[in-house]
Write a structure and sequence with these properties.
Chain lengths: ~425, ~325
């Protein structure tokens, strides 16, 4: 079936109520024919009820009752659409400063981020904030959509000015791939179809770019890491001696016959077989979930990591992190938190809050060390037991963690590791 | 200034690696298997909610793959409304036997007989809402701390923000404002006594993905999904299967029609569509071309525009 050969692109959008983000997503869904008749009818009825003359596409992405009452989006919402060439997952996040945590959440699983700029207003604080969060979360591909071009007479000069301003700011961010597209989400120009109003733009439409952007090369295929998630022991007659180590490949390529090392024990063996279900596969790479068997009978359990002898993660009992605080309760340096990283859990205590980061200016705030909701800070932790980690910029799985409050069980912060 | 983003040496990775390309079904499968294994690893008494519908059949298929060659290390839980299609029941029993799985049945009839809930009356009477009480009773009786369901985010507006690990309080209720953030692939299943989780490994799948995956994996489905002739009752825009459980209006008549079902719920509420699609491939083609959402035929969602959100808060699937 044709649909079986499509790849997947996960992207995130950030923006506030006024910059047309909901309209843009509504437009992508609508113009790519991903809206069903009953959904469109419901939106048409709501638009009419509100006394609007045209259909408000932003209502398509309107979620929970509480949000409709307040007219804002308070959480990350996931949207789906597909074209004959690709399947898309949108993590749609609200853009207010108080929702930094949602942007971080949305960006954590995204390959690409869309930044919206209102052509009339140019770069705002939130433009810096969104771009900074995208780079903090290691997103490699940015699309800057200069929206509402209809309100600046489709001016190429205005577009060039904004591109120039963004480039002088983004040189500090180290995002390797940045694309600029002038659009009108309201009218549909350059969203799905190329704009007749802006013949000076030769870079294609947004959807065209989303369909073509190459992201599978972002995966780390060098450093072999298999965090062991679950041990499979059937203990039935026809598989009495089967010991399988189940997990999702974090990075690298594993093949049968490879010599491997199990951490933290340091025992070595060879990969005997790699399976998905009951089918053996010739090689395993991210993000596949597989079951690996080894040639030798060695002790392996959840939280261990299967790696290669000559390419090992760091084993550390002190970590330097960038932390985004997610909870209403502020960070308490006296609490013994739990760090969950890949398939491991370990107790952790703050050893030092180095500084907070002003996410609008990227300046360090070295005096203010009280960490509350939506703050991003550089914090180091002491660990009760060593963890196997990589730098986040090298490895998104073995370099990221969540912080759990042991009393409530709640996830209170998200962090990236910097070696 | 803070230095963030990629370091120069990582640039070497930005290269074409076409031999490592995956299609989206492989990625979705890998994600779902990871989530299901995480449930087995993090919870003491997990279960899979099995409705007999295609989504829970796909979940069960993924669970079998996740733990092969071992059997699925958690029971399948079926909430039996007593108004199920007979085809669904026969299919359930055959699947349980083939997978050597454990089956737990919660009976809505028993909940009614015990006086815990009252049967609805009138033409719109259904046992759909009553299931919630039976489900929560079953969860409590067996001490399940995590229940895996086949719901997807694309099904309904209230589900677009659903987590993979969805936290439920002591009363089984879902509080949309009090959900734990989920980042990367780090799922936090910590819970206090009495609290439990609903887990949705198919969150990122769409209806079309499900059908394409069923075709690819050659997964068996109940015959109801395929076009067949049966007695139906047309009510408004919905085509309902005729059965002895359906309370008919005086002006309603039985009609013989060629139909199939897009979802399988209770006999009294599941809308059929006119269709000639009698193979998985034809259904996938029909779904790709269709212009009405899957739950468009579900009478339970039509009660109000926030019907799903309201039922979720009460502890519905």
């Amino acid at each position: 079936m044709e649909d079986n050969t499509n790849s997947l692109l996960r992207f995130t959008t950030a923006g506030s109520v006024d910059d047309g983000k909901s309209t843009l997503i509504g437009r992508l869904l609508h113009d790519s024919k991903s809206i069903f008749e009953d959904q469109l009818e419901a939106v048409e009825a709501s638009s009419a009820q509100k006394g609007l003359e045209t259909v408000d596409l932003s209502l398509l992405t309107d979620g929970l009752k509480a949000e409709r009452e307040q007219g804002i989006t308070i959480d990350v919402a996931y949207r789906y659409f597909a074209t004959p060439r690709r399947k898309f997952i949108i993590a749609d996040t609200p853009g207010h400063i108080e929702y930094t945590r949602n942007m971080v959440t949305g960006a954590s699983t995204a390959d690409l981020a869309i930044i919206l700029i209102d052509a009339r207003h140019g770069l705002l604080e939130q433009t810096h904030r969104h771009s900074f969060i995208a780079s903090l979360l290691g997103i490699q591909h940015l699309v800057v959509c200069v929206n509402k071009m209809d309100l600046v007479d489709w001016s190429e000069e205005r577009f060039r000015d904004i591109v120039g301003a963004f480039q002088s700011f983004s040189s500090r961010l180290n995002i390797p791939d940045i694309k600029f597209i002038p659009i009108s989400a309201l009218l549909g120009d350059n969203v799905v179809d190329p704009s007749a109003h802006m013949p000076w733009h030769h870079g294609g439409s947004l959807l065209n770019h989303l369909e073509e952007v190459h992201v599978s090369g972002d995966r780390n295929l060098q450093d072999c890491r298999l965090p062991v998630q679950y041990v499979i022991r059937p203990q039935v007659d026809d598989a009495r001696d089967f010991w399988g180590y189940a997990g999702r490949i974090a990075s690298g390529v594993f093949k049968p016959g490879d010599e491997v090392l199990v951490l933290p024990s340091g025992r070595t063996s060879k990969v005997a077989d790699i399976r998905i279900g009951d089918r053996s596969i010739p090689k395993a790479f991210p993000p596949l979930s597989v079951t690996v068997t080894l040639e030798d009978d060695i002790d392996v359990s959840r939280g261990d990591m299967i790696v290669r002898q000559h390419n090992q993660p760091e084993v550390v009992s002190q970590i330097d992190t960038r932390l985004c605080w997610l909870a209403a309760t502020p960070l308490n340096p006296a609490t013994r938190y739990i760090i969950r990283l890949a398939c491991s859990e370990v107790q952790a205590k703050v050893s030092e809050v180095l500084y907070k980061i002003d996410i609008n200016t990227l300046h360090r705030l070295e005096e203010d060390k009280a960490i509350g909701m939506n703050d991003i800070a550089r914090v180091s932790f002491r660990l009760a037991a060593p963890l196997m980690v990589d730098d986040y910029r090298e490895n998104r799985t073995t370099g990221s963690f969540i912080l759990i409050d042991p009393a409530s069980g709640a996830t209170v912060a998200a962090g990236t590791i910097h070696l | 200034m803070v230095q963030v983003g990629l370091t120069g040496q990582n640039q070497k990775r930005i290269m074409m690696n076409t031999e490592y390309n995956l299609n989206h079904l492989d990625e979705l499968e890998a994600e779902s298997i990871f989530v299901i294994r995480e449930v087995a690893a993090q919870f003491e008494r997990p279960a899979i909610l099995f409705s007999g519908g295609k989504d829970s059949i796909v979940v069960t298929h993924l669970a079998a793959k996740a733990f092969a060659p071992a059997r699925i290390p958690m029971p399948l839980v079926h909430i039996d409304t007593g108004h199920n299609f007979p085809e669904t029941m026969a299919f359930r029993d055959a699947l349980v036997e083939r997978l050597n799985a454990r089956l737990v049945v919660g009976s809505v009839q028993e909940t009614i007989d015990a006086g815990r809930v009252q049967e609805e009356s009138g033409v719109h009477a259904s046992r759909n809402r009553l299931q919630t009480t039976t489900l929560l009773d079953t969860i409590e009786a067996h001490g399940f701390d995590a229940c895996i369901g086949g719901a997807r985010r694309d099904e309904e507006k209230a589900r677009a923000k659903e987590r993979f690990f969805s936290h439920r309080d002591d009363f089984g209720q879902w509080d949309p404002k009090n959900q734990r953030p989920e980042l990367w692939n780090l799922f936090n299943g910590r819970h206090r006594p009495g609290e439990h989780y609903r887990v949705f490994p198919l969150n990122n799948w769409t209806e079309l993905d499900i059908w394409n995956y069923i075709a690819r994996e050659q997964i068996d489905l109940p015959s109801l999904y395929f076009a067949h002739e049966r007695d139906c009752v047309v009510r408004g825009e919905t085509i309902l299967a005729w059965s002895e459980y359906l309370n008919m209006r005086p002006d309603e008549v039985k009609e013989r029609m060629q139909v199939r079902f897009r979802t399988l719920g209770d006999l009294t509420i599941t809308g059929a569509i006119r269709s000639d699609a009698d193979t998985v491939e034809k259904i996938a083609a029909e779904v790709a071309a269709t212009r009405i959402t899957e739950r468009g035929g579900r009478m339970d969602d039509r009660r109000s525009s926030t019907a799903m959100e309201d039922r979720k808060k009460e502890g519905y699937f």
